[in-house]
Amino acid sequence: MAVQEARQGPEPGAHDGGCACGDCPHGAREGHRRAVAAFLVKRDEFAAGQGLPAAVAHSASASRQWVSEELTQSAERVAERGRAEGESWLSRVWQRTACTVGAAVVALLLVQSLTAIGAGWTAARTAGLLAALLVGGALTAASWLHRARGGALAPVIGEDNRLSTSRVVAAAWVLFVAYAVLVLVGRLAAASGPAERDALISGLDLARGAGAVTVLAVVCAIAVLVRRVVGLRVLGQRLQKVRAHRPRAADLLTDDAGRGTFADIQYVVISAVALAFAAVRLARRPDQLPDLPWGLAVVVLVSAATYLAGKYAEGGRPVILSVVRSREAGDLDGPIRTGDDIEIRGAGFVPPGAQSADRLSRMVVRIGAVHVHVPLVPVTGGFSNPTDAVLTVPVPAEVEPGRAEVQVITAAGVETNRYAIDVTD
């Protein structure tokens, strides 16, 4: 549907979607959608050999360069619209946070009202509801104060503008423990006798909540350590990171390329199960911290260790394995000369999350002292060049004959190893 609309052109009176009106027909989301549709139409037309001017149609290299430049400019417009849409989305998160918090408090009230039938309303139910109001109010206020940076999501958004799995898990445990303590505070404030107050204070003993406290300490430490590990690996060029247009819920379970990751999935699932168990324990025993069994606590710790090991194992530096002269059907075999195309074979040329055209167009190959931008070669549904394992670039006339070193610079700014080739006249 979006492609058909792009072929028909914009609606009368519609502008380019530069405003941040949310879901209005002229908003950032609509502008981004139209830019993507227009780019897809242009890419597929070029892939079918349509739209080439007569001045460059006679030369394969000239037409390829012209097509690459046109697609690069169109991709830059898509990226600009994507950034605008991402900023607009972040600015509206605080409103969604307020609605979500309100719905959660109402749901808690309904559950407590239903379970109170026959058993009666107790002080623990009042304390739980008041604690939910306090935590929800704090989240809403913090979300409004940081509304320009993603509201309540600001602390759990990583430097690459994606949701951080470790920070989300740690934040969930922090909020739950804060809620549990506030429930005890409400019970203590409503206690009428010294014996009841002493029992509530003893509910905070470490012997009762040792499992939950240990899990809280470990997941918070994992969140801090993972940030340090990722930062050092990026600076050491052992991990490639590209910035996303906006955070998505799928970031919790996938890598930067959108593929499901076992380490992240198991960490989120096991942490969610442990939190659900702890919530039930708090509901059954609201007079003490949830006594998380050590067996379940150890399972969470093993899951956290697996997640941390996955962070150490992911990524890797791109590498050139070989460089050969690109040969078309009917060409004679020969050495690499200026004007020829060379095929660079290796691994890791396209970082995860850099499959979009605006990212691919930022790839550069250094041949001697000359920087050559990798041309975009469209095919139906994508690009045949560049790919993660093979790049094809021309050897410009500015390259001096003789020994020259080839090096690839990816969209993340990471450089590969140097590979020497011989260029002849």
UniProtKB/TrEMBL annotation:
The chain crosses the membrane at residues 98-121, 127-147, 168-190, 210-230, 262-280, 292-310. One of its GO terms (biological process) is carbohydrate metabolic process. The keyword Membrane applies. InterPro entries: Ig-like_fold. Gene3D superfamilies: Immunoglobulins (2.60.40.10). Keywords: Membrane, Transmembrane, Transmembrane helix. This is Integral membrane protein.
